[in-house]
């Protein structure tokens, strides 16, 4: 494609064609429209932003998922997303259009609006780069902060760790990985696309949580590090209480990755003193969850393995996925 803005004809066909599906969207993308307008009434507006740099062929879809998950971690209902898409000159129109299709598919799945953004071909990028801004709303007394974890809170994890990392690696290295994965494991990974969102558990957990954090880059270790740093508290995590799927175990072992440092969108970390009520309601919704530890007063993070050995998590880890992609 030629360097510069994406031609209006492409945007007209693949972006400006969308209908406004939500009553709280007052102004959506169009030719010459550089802003969107959202009616949040008396609620609090919540805004977040994330780049997608290591998602390969699923980057468009995941660019929507990650910002919706950030909003859910604050207790907010996602409303819409704005996406900046930078394409390298050697990319094709079809690659760009596929990213738009994936973004729109995710918006439809999560009942949110593509509010706009920016797109161009730029020589400063070597592969597609997507930066998404998510917009949501929450009632004043439902807003959740990462910094509010309390001593004695139980630490709950939803679903299983490594969902996103395993899904990305499978889609990038499919032929190689299929040589040792069982048909059941392949089916499980392919279904992970339906498990990458934590919006449902976020909207349930906001009634019980002192803090929430979606488990993204840096995996479980990254998420608990940020929760503890934000709240000025510490934590104990017990490896024996963590659930990993066989596909996550196999792919992590094949690439020699630590699954606790692997990007894990699809899993929410929740701290709460109402763990029984929360677990009961999540399971009623069909969402697996389990207690893996507790928040402590001393500002240190202990990871206790199955042999009782303690590892201190004293820095934000580099995500394991960068060893492969």
TrEMBL record:
Domain PurM-like N-terminal: 32-138
Annotated GO biological process: protein maturation
Gene3D superfamilies: PurM-like C-terminal domain (3.90.650.10), PurM-like, N-terminal domain (3.30.1330.10)
UniProt superkingdom: Bacteria
Domain PurM-like C-terminal positions: 150-303
InterPro entries: HypE, PurM-like_C_dom, PurM-like_C_sf, PurM-like_N, PurM-like_N_sf
Pfam families from the UniProt entry: AIRS, AIRS_C
Family: Belongs to the HypE family.
Protein name stated in the entry: AIR synthase related protein domain protein
CDD domains: PurM-like1
